[in-house]
User: Fold this.
Amino acid sequence: MNTEIVYDITEGSLKRAADIILDGGLVAFPTETVYGLGANALDSSAAEKIYAAKNRPSDNPLIIHLSRAEDAEKYCITNDLYYALAERFMPGPLTVILPKKDIIPYTVTGGLETVAVRVPSCETARRFIEAAGVPIAAPSANLSGKPSPTQARHVILDMYGRIDMIMAGEDCEIGLESTIISLAEPNPKIYRPGKVTYEELKELCPELTISEAVLKAHKGRPESPGMMYKHYSPKAEVTIIDASRSERIAFLRDKAECGILCYDEDAELLCMPYAKGIGKESSPEDQARLLFARLREFDEIDEVKQIYSPMPKAEGVGLAVLNRLIRAAGFKIIKL
Ligand code: TXA
Ligand code: MG
Assistant:
């Protein structure tokens, strides 16, 4: 397939993107979290093409992207809590799961009776959704199993030749996918942590809980099917080191052939050949922004067969960083 790459987001290129969507095609676009791979969420066969382009299992549901929080009314059964969350966090990196209306096909929801909705804050994403005039079903624009794309080049690498258009915009500001909260459970529950934190959501949802699948290997099918699959994995094995700074440094000192993710203040490690900084230990926001790009950088170094990472604290945005790392590592944690 011929893939058009668009570097200049103009009225003309947005119109072409919208026409592709209304014709049942696929367009990758930037958001503030990660790049998305969009199709018309009201068109079942367009949604099917997403699964094929990504090699994604078809029971893993898609998020629908809207340009205005009020539009959710047309596609799902909203409630007061949805509007309270929307008021505080939309547009932005929060996805809400609600019971779906008939207009949303089961191909989009992976056969579920619920649908996930999100209103991105990224200007290009919002202009694109508005131009299309339909909700945009979009997973992250990576091949299934790979780290999510946070730069246009990641999307081009994974999707060139597989989709109709790539809008090559800016690097993603947040770098990890949106927080997912379900309001379709007896009590609100976080299915996937992100930039909007448990602590922030708890202020509006006192009964909030966090799915066990966030930090543990699940038994059976988790609430959010995406948690079931191997995820975010670079070519090399990833192992998390649960240890103090000095123990971690001592352990890694003779691992010159390995990829090492480290905090900016880990000066002794940063001079090793395949070490890469992921921001300060105190800044999970920096770690979130850099993590997927760093994991992909190791794919370009043939020598690196093993990657070690520190273990961020499971609080605030750190919970999201830890959730992605644990999955990238396939739950391999060495406790020193
Ligand atoms: O930030 C994001 O959310 C990005 C950008 C592109 O918006 N999108 C994204 O989509 O991360 P994706 O498909 O890679 O991840 C969506 C996750 C999957 O784990 C899926 O299982 C879950 O959301 N999900 C979607 N609809 C659901 C539903 N109705 N019930 C439970 N989980 C759902
Ligand atoms: Mg994804």
In short: The two ends are 50 Å apart (CA to CA).
